[in-house]
Amino acid sequence: MKTTEYIIIRDFRAPELDLYARLSETELLRLHEPERGVFIAESPKVIERALQAGCVPISVLCEERHAEEAGMLLGKYGEIQEAEGLSFDDRRIPIYTAPFDVLTRLTGFSLTRGMLCAMYRPEIPSVESVCRGASRIVVLEQIMNPTNVGAIFRSAAALQMDAVLLTHGCSDPLYRRAIRVSMGTVFQIPWAFFPDRGQEAWPDRGLALLHRLGFRTVAMALCENSLSIDDPRLAAEEKLAIVLGSEGDGLKAETIASCDYTVRIPMSHGVDSLNVAAASAVAFWQLGRRNQ
User: Fold this and answer.
1) Which end of the chain is more exposed for a tag (fewer CB within 10 A), N or C?
2) How confident is the model at residue 107 (pLDDT cuts 50, 70, 90)?
3) CB atoms within 10 A of CB 58
4) Residue 220's closest CA among 277, 288, 280, 144?
């Protein structure tokens, strides 16, 4: 990919806008089945992080005043590919531009800071490969809100977590809102899904896999026998997997029972718990610190 092509769009109904305006997240995910689907990245910073991670662009949609910036981003992608000795095709990457009044008719476009990029979904690695070499990982159990997933990824990347694992039922980290809230950190920290069946299925086999890989598992839950999050035994562990539960019900009872530790964040003023995204930041800050 060495060249770009600028195309001005005057008609909201133009088929080139289908990826951005008329296909749902599920339709984008399944667009090229059985091959990988498509996702949408928003804002120059997020797009740049996705390109640096090796994601392959399909097209860009932006306001006319951002067209030159979009071309520079795609040019950087070509330079990265060449510098790393990677191969890419010579197709022209279209940059669709339109007046602001046309773009404001696109759902959510006002939140994109002027630029959208459609990209092919990267290949998602296995759970075991993501855990290889990691000492602090995160497990999300059925966290369905993409805003929470994106916020947790941002905290995980900032606060010394090495990888994120997600169970069946979690929101996809490459959903548009999750990517936006994460500020593109979903492209910077390794992640994988536990399968819903088979030898790595969550919870029983997934937890057993983590134990085989040397991780001690930490269930974040409000139970009578919970340890305080600042218990020195936790910082002494070489490898920890921090398990966070769904927004409403928290972790499943069987998950809590199968973890090595149950840990709570001390509360005051009668507050019983934090939002899962806020709790994750506290947990990562404390549990990411290791005894030297």
Assistant:
1) C
2) very low
3) 16
4) 280
Q: How many residues does the chain have?
A: 292
- Per the CB < 8 A criterion, the answer to whether 96 and 40 are in contact is no
Q: pLDDT digit string (tens) for 275-286? A: 999 999 999 999
Which tokens belong to 68? 């030159």
In 47-135, at which residue ranges do the beta strands (DSSP E only) sit?
57-63, 93-98, 115-120
pTM, two decimal places: 0.90
Q: Are 286 and 229 in contact (CB under 8 A)?
A: yes
Return d(Cα 178, Cα 209) in angstroms, integer. Answer: 27
Identify the residue whose tokens are 């998602």: 124
Q: How many angstroms separate the Cα of 147 from the Cα of each of 30, 50, 80, 279? A: 22, 18, 30, 14
Q: DSSP letter string over 253-288? A: HHHHHHSSEEEE----TT-----HHHHHHHHHHHHT
Structure tokens at 269: 């003023």
Q: Per-residue pLDDT averaged across 217-223, rounded?
A: 92
